[in-house]
Design brief:
- The chain is mainly alpha-helical and 442 residues long.
- Strands 1-2 form a two-stranded antiparallel ribbon.
- Helix 12 runs parallel beside helix 14 and helix 14 packs antiparallel against helix 15.
- The longest helix has 27 residues.
- It starts with a helix and ends with a helix.
């Protein structure tokens, strides 16, 4: 048997070396060649079983290696190593060609400056499906092809990463979207199309066990996140810059609040924030076709904006009774502003919508608004203190109502509000409380 397989290998390798036509046929049509070998192997194996169970008595002194027995007492569906070795050269060549066929459309669609179209992305999965179907003749060849598909997914992500822009043009939000930002939107959209196509591919081939490709697909989500990161970071920075202007406004007014005929008007900074987020939603976000992905990325942004607002609102000083009414109105207006990003707040058959999707942070905003109207003696007994509203926020609210003879923590430290706010954002609650304690004791 060993001599037979050796001769077979020499004949196949020799024939391919002498004739380019034969080489092309053996390499290009390797799955057909493999099918012939597998059929032959099955016949040999069946014949071996019949012979070994026919009661043939052999000389025990003669040691015979049965190539059809992989383990003692059992037969294997796998082709033996000797027979497999005659095909290795052609298998490697076929897999290399298969990988090239998978890579070629991706390299071609990214050869210019234009972003690939959805039709081109769909063509990638047509090619992938063809390769998987052809290689399904054997599990070993199929698994090798699946690995090639994984490399194809990584190549697509790398090409998108190279095409994505991360310079100043990709992060500006002062003017209308630049060409760099428009290209990033297109890249995120085709990555979403590619991810959806990959999920369909796995679902359509559920019986072939290619779930491992979904692990490779995690790179797609990572690339989508990194592509929109410059835009979202700019929105966050601009929002904080708007909140900083609230310290230039006067919230010290006092007076009777029971006889107010209508809610106080929104503060100028809150009107600016609403106008800003409305423009961002209209000019920058509406062109994303992958709404589920964008919504998921906007939720953390909305949480950061709420935390920024509560931080700066708690530092407003002095805060009078009418100023507190206006600040409470700003909380309600902030909910409306964030609905421009997250959509209406409520519940649907699919679950919570709008601000309800960021439950804990939304509770914080509602609780902070309630505390604005509380008396100082009511703070200590407030059920949400510590669990919903941090103690540091409560302390800042208390200090905002104190006489001016008690300096604010940032004033004691000799810092501006912007520097103090940045420090608070970078430290945990314990460090915040220690800093506030030290400023009060000094």
């Amino acid at each position: 048997w060993c001599k037979l397989t050796k001769i077979l290998k020499e004949v196949l390798v020799g024939a391919s070396a002498k004739s380019n036509f034969i080489k092309q046929a053996l390499e290009g049509e390797y799955p057909k060649l493999l099918r012939l070998f597998l059929n032959t192997w099955s016949k040999f194996k069946l014949l071996a079983v019949q012979v070994n169970t026919s009661g043939l008595i052999m000389d025990e002194s003669i040691k015979i290696k049965d190539p059809f027995l992989q383990q003692p007492g059992g037969h294997s569906d796998e082709m033996c190593a000797d027979m497999r070795s005659s095909l290795e050269q052609f298998e490697h060549a076929y897999l290399a060609r298969s990988l090239s066929r998978l890579f070629d459309p991706i390299n071609l669609m990214f050869s210019g400056n234009a972003v690939p179209s959805p039709e081109e992305v769909s063509g990638i999965f047509t090619c992938i499906t063809n390769e998987l179907n052809v290689s399904s003749v054997e599990e070993r060849l199929f698994n090798a092809t699946v690995k090639n598909v994984g490399k194809t997914i990584k190549l697509f992500c790398v090409k998108c990463e190279q095409a994505a822009k991360a310079d100043a043009d990709a992060s500006q939000i002062v003017a209308y979207p630049t060409e760099a930002q428009k290209q990033n939107v297109q890249i995120v959209n085709i990555l979403a199309d590619f991810q959806a196509g990959l999920k369909r591919l796995v679902a359509d081939n559920g019986n072939k066990k290619i779930d491992s490709l979904l692990e490779e697909g995690k790179d797609i989500k990572d690339q989508m996140v990194s592509t929109v990161a410059p835009l979202l970071a700019s929105i966050e920075d601009a929002s904080e810059a708007i909140f900083l202007t609230c310290h230039k406004e006067d919230f010290s007014q006092n007076g009777a609040t029971d006889n107010l005929k209508q809610p106080p008007a929104s503060s100028p900074y809150m009107k600016e924030l609403q106008s800003f987020l409305e423009r961002i939603s209209k000019d920058f976000l509406q062109n994303f076709s992958c709404k589920d992905f964008i919504d998921a990325e906007l939720r953390p942004l909305a949480e950061k904006i709420i935390h920024q607002f509560i931080l700066h609102a708690s530092l407003i000083r002095p805060l009078g009774s009418l100023g507190a009414q206006r600040l409470g109105s700003d909380c309600a207006q902030l909910e409306f502003a964030l609905s421009l990003l997250l959509g209406p707040t409520g519940y649907s058959s699919a679950g919570p919508t709008g601000l309800n999707t960021i439950g804990t942070t939304y509770q914080l905003l509602r609780a902070f608004r309630a505390m604005i109207f509380m008396k100082l003696e009511e703070f200590q007994s407030y059920a949400g203190l510590g669990s919903i509203v941090p103690h540091s926020v409560c302390l800042h609210l208390m200090i905002s109502r104190c006489p001016e003879v008690m300096p604010s923590p940032q004033a004691t430290l000799g810092w501006g509000v912007a520097r103090y706010a940045r420090w608070l954002q970078k430290h945990d609650e314990r460090e915040k409380l220690l800093l506030i304690q030290g400023s009060l004791e000094s």
